[in-house]
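Consider the following assembly input.
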Amino acid sequence: MTFSSLTFLFVFLPAFLLLHFLIPGKGKRVVLFIAGIVFYSFGDPKAMLFMLFSILLHYAAGLEISRFLQAEEKAAAKIAMLVTVAVDVAALAVFKYTSLALPLGISFYTFSAISYAADVYMGKAEAERNPLTLALYISFFPKVVSGPIVQYHDFRQQLTDLSPKEGDFGAGMYLFMIGLFKKVLLADVLGAAFASVTALPEMASATAILGMLFYSFQLYFDFSGYSDMAIGLARVAGFRFAKNFDHPYLSTSVAQFWRRWHISLGAWFRDYVYIPLGGNRCSALMQFRNLLIVWILTGIWHGNTWNFVVWGLYHGFFVIFERFVLKGKQEAIPAAIRVFVTDVIVFIGWVFFFSPSMGSAVHYLGQMIGRDGLGFWDSATTFIFRQNILVLILAVLFSGSFIRKWHDGMILSHGKGIRRVFIGVYIALLILCVAFMVGATYSSFLYVQF
Amino acid sequence: MPGIPRRIRKQVEMREEREQKRLLKRVVYDRLVAWIFCGILCALTILNVILPDRSFSEAENRNLAQRPAFSGSALADGSFSDSFADYYADQFAGRDLLMQLKFHVEYLSGKRKFADVYEGKDGYLLVEPTEPDEEAVARTADAITKFAAAHEDVDMTAIIVPDAATVLADHLPSNVTVRDQALDISAFTSMLPARIGITDAVAALREAEEGQLYYRTDHHWTSLGAYTVFQAAVPVLDVETDGISYKEHLVSETFQGTSSSKSGDLRRKDDIVVYEPLGTDAIYNVNFPEDQIRRRSMFFAEKLEEKDQYTVFFGGNHSVVEIETTVDNDRSILIFKDSYANSFIQFLTPYYHRITLIDPRYYYGDVASALKTYGVTDVLYLYSADTLMTDTALADTLLTGV
C-alpha cells in the first residue's frame, strides 16, 4: 500500500486518523504500532516476519551494547555493535544480490535499525528497554517504505509525548496534501511521458533529452512528494521530521545538491560512515578515501547493478573535484550558470540511474547525441513535446521556491476571498488526483479484438 | 533589554507581534484546509461503503472486480491485498465520471494518444498498427503456398485489409507517422505464388472518393469500406454482378467500439449500415454448427442492444459458419478469415451456392475433409493486416490440409 493508493486514502487513512484522535495518551503508541503492522502487511505480508526479526535482533543488541558500555568494556561493545551491523549489511546484500524477493522498504528500515545500534554505541541514545518503542521506530508506517531515514536519537526524543500539539494536524495534513498532488499530478504524469519516450525503438537527440528531463522531474516529484506525505503523516502523529528535499534542482554545486536531495540519506552516510571514518579531520588522502567509500556505498545502496556504482562514483567525482580542485573558485561564476551546470551534471547522472544496465545507459547517452541518425529534432519529438509541454513547464515552476513563496504571501497578506479561492483550487486538485488514481486502473477488456 | 531605546524596542515588539499573528493565521488556515481535505476523504469513503457494487462496466467493456473473500492464507501470500485494491478501484464511487474527468483534462492539456489509440482528425480514433512477427508471416505465406500446391483445382484469392491509420494517414494527429501497413501487405503478397489472385485493398480504399470507410470509434472497416473492396475484388473473384445492386439500411447510430473503450474517449458514436442485395431472388440460410443454430439472416439485430454492436454481423466470430443459398450454380467458396470478413459476406450471397467461413483461431477441424464436405471450388483469404501479421492459427489450420 502506498500513500497515493485508493485503499490508503479511503480506507487506511480515515481509520487511522479516527483511532489516533480517539485513543488518548500512551494508547496512541499502540495505535501507531498496529497501524505500522497493518500498513506493512498490506504491502508485503511475507516480509513481515523478517522485519519482526530485525526488530528483535536490534532490541537484544541494544541491551547488550549498553551492558558492555556500562561495564566499561568499550571493545566488547564495539564488537557487539559491529556484529549487529554486519548482520544487517549481510541481510541487505543477500536480498539485493540474490533472486530472493526484496522485502518492502528493507533498504530504508535497515538503515534506521543500524542508526539505533550505532546511536546506542556512540552514546547518542539510551538502549530501549520497551520492545514496543523500538518496534514503533523501525516499523513507523509513515517512513517504513521509503523514508525519510530518521535517526534514532531524533525519533526517540519526540516519542515521550504524543498528545496532539497545536498546529500539528493542520500543518501535517496540508503537507500530505501537497505531497499527494506532487506525486499523482506531476510525478505520475511525467512517468507516463518518460515511458512514451523509452517505448520508442529509435529517437532523435532532442527526444532522448526530453526523456531525460521527464525522468529527472518525475524522480524529484515522486520522491519529494512521497517524503512530504511521510513527513506530513508523521507530523499528524506528533513527530517532527526534518525536510528530506530542499529544492535540489536549484543547487549551485553537486556537493550542495547532495545537501538538498534525499537529505536524510546524506545525513545518515555523514553521521554513520563519513565521520566515523575520520571525516574532514584527516589528511587530504584519507578524506579522498572516505569520500570514495561514501559514494560507492551510496551507489550500491540504490541498486544492485554496475550502473548504480558508476552513478555513485560519477557524483563522487564531481564532489571531490569541487572540493580539491575548484576549492570554491567557481563562486566567481554567476549563480544561474552554476545551477544550470549542476543540473546538467545531475540530469545526465539520472541516465545511469534509470537504465537497467551499464550498456543501456551508454546506449541512451549515445541517443542523446544522435546515434540513431534521426538528427536533433524530428516529428516524433514535436509530438511528444506538444503532448507533455504543459506538465514539463509546471514541473520546472514547482521545482523552484517561487510559487510556494507567492502562495504563502497571498494567503497571509490578503483577505478571506483569496484564501477561499485557494481552498477551491485544492478541492479541485484533490478531485483531479482521485480521478487520476482511479484512471490509472482503467483497462478495457477486448474479448473479441478482431 | 536595557540600553536599547524605547522606540526601537517598541518597533521590535510590534514586528514580533505581527509575525506571531501571521503564524497564527497560517495555523488557522492549514487547519481549515486539513479539515476540508479529511472531510472529502471521509465523504468518499462513506460513499464507497454505501453505494452498491456493479458487476459490469459498459465504458470499459469488462466485468468489474468483486469483493474478495477474506482468508488468512490469502492475506499471508499478499493476494488479498492485491485483489482488495483491484476491487476497491473497480467499485470506486463515480468511477466512470472520474475516468471522463481524467480523459478531458488530459485531452485539454494536449494529450493525443491514449493507450495505443491516437486522437485523429475529424473524430477518428486510430489504433497504432501491430508490428509484424516476421517468423509467423513467413510461416503463413509458406502454408498458403503449400496449400495452393496441394489443391490445384481450387481457385484461390486473397484480400488483406489495411488498418484505418494506413488508409487515413492524413487523419493522424500532426507530427505522427505510424507504420505503413501497405508495405507489410505488399511484402506479404509478394511471398505468395502467382496463381493466388490478389485484390489490392489498400489501393481500393485509398482511391475511394468519399464516405466513411472505417468506424471512428472502432478498429473495423465499415460496410462501405467492405463494399469498396468488394467492388475491386469482383474481377478477381470472377463473379457476375450485372443487374445486382445493394440497398443500404441504417441499423444503429449508437455504436461505440473498441477504440473508444481503449482510449476512454466516449465523445462520439458511429452509425452501422448493412447492405441488402437487390435484383436477385436468392435467399439463404445460415448454419452455426458449433451452436447447432440455424438462422435466416446473417444479421443479429439483438446484438445492437449490446456493447459491441459490430457483432450484429453473424453475432461475432465462430469457428465455422455455413451459408447455403438458393443461387443456382455449383460454386462453393471457403473463406479463411478474421472479424473483418464478417461485414464483407453480406455482398457475396447472390453469387455462390455455398459460402463457408472458417476462423482458424477457433477451428480445430481438418481442412482437407472440409474441402471435400463442402465441395469447395474457391478459397478466399480475407484478413486484416493487424491479425495476419502476428497470426499463427491460419498456418496451423492450412497445414492440416496439405
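The longest helix of chain B spans residues 6-50. Ask yourself how this observation constrains the way the partners meet.
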